[in-house]
Amino acid sequence: MSKFFCDTNSEVWYTKAEALGINVIKMPYTLGNDMYFYDLGKETDCKAFFDAMRNGESAKTQALNMDEYLEYFEPVFASGEDIIYVSFSHAMSGTFNSMRLAIDALAEKYPERKITVIDTGSISCGTGRMVEEAAKLHNSGASDEEVVKFVEEFKKKVKIYFTVNDLKYLVRGGRLSAVAGALGTLLNLKPILGVDESGKLASLAKINGRKKSMHTLVEKLATDGLDTSYPIILMQADSEADAKLIESSIMQKYPDAKVEIQMIGPVVGAHCGPDTLGIIFVCKE
């Protein structure tokens, strides 16, 4: 039997992770001069984090090093168990280079043990949606190979779209040029972002104004073909009032849908900034 892992960039809220028995790899971030490790909301005050960003505090993300990965993985191997790890997109971070070094070192020390890493090609609650379903399957007794097969198929149906309120955070993170950021701010443009087939963030549209960008997120449910047997997740970076407006709009159109609203954590939040809104759902095909 293997131990099931995810990382905190999956944004599976800590109560769900604990209920599913998931081992969690905590991703690091800095706020000002202090470093922290995100704990899926167990003790982290996400609202205070976004308030600090609004007040000008610098927020950055870090990569785990090889030794930190060893601290997570080696005790499992030493106990005679294997590992299955459902991760966020490998194309979005250099942290997986350190992970591979740790896995190589462990392979020499524990040649009989195995670690299976599944790249969801997504981020935040998009990865979280896959983690939850994969963990349920794993807990039911499915083999690691069966979990891999499930995620590889399921990931094709999981959609993630989001919009940021202030372009300066995309500029700071190098995902938008300073010129494009200044022009977009002047024109009140709100980008609709998603994840492309390579697992990288992609700009899908530029919408004029906040309300229209929120409306566009809801429209994605119809254009992609919503499967209401899975919950719709609305992620919000301390913008719950707007998330509730989106929820109301969704329920008017899809009265049988289930909607969950969740705060974005500091690691993802450091890149997108306060008042970011996103929608994650499963489509039929």
What do you see in this structure?
The protein contains eleven helices and 13 strands. Helices cover 42% and strands 24% of the residues. 40% of the residues are buried. Helix 5 packs antiparallel against helix 6 (144-154) and helix 9 packs parallel to helix 10. It has helices spanning 14-19, 46-54, 66-78, 95-109, 124-139, 144-154, 168-172, 178-186, 210-224, 240-253, 266-272, and strands spanning 2-7, 23-25, 28-31, 34-37, 59-61, 82-87, 115-119, 158-163, 189-195, 201-208, 232-236, 259-263, 277-282. It folds into two domains: 2-27 and 64-154, Rossmann fold, CATH 3.40.50.10440; 158-282, Hypothetical Protein Tm841, Chain: A,domain 3. Helix 10 (240-253) links the parallel strand 11 (232-236) and strand 12. It is an alpha/beta fold. Residues 177-184 have low confidence and may be disordered. The strands form three sheets. It has a six-stranded mixed β-sheet, sandwiched between helices. It has a four-stranded parallel β-sheet with strand order 2-1-6-7, with helices on both faces. A three-stranded antiparallel β-sheet has the order 4-3-5, with helices on one face. It is globular and about 55 Å long.
Describe the structure using short key phrases:
285 residues; alpha/beta; Rossmann fold; Hypothetical Protein Tm841, Chain: A,domain 3; 2 domains; six-stranded mixed beta sheet; 11 helices; 42% helix
Task: Explain briefly what this protein structure is.
With 285 residues, this protein is an alpha/beta fold.
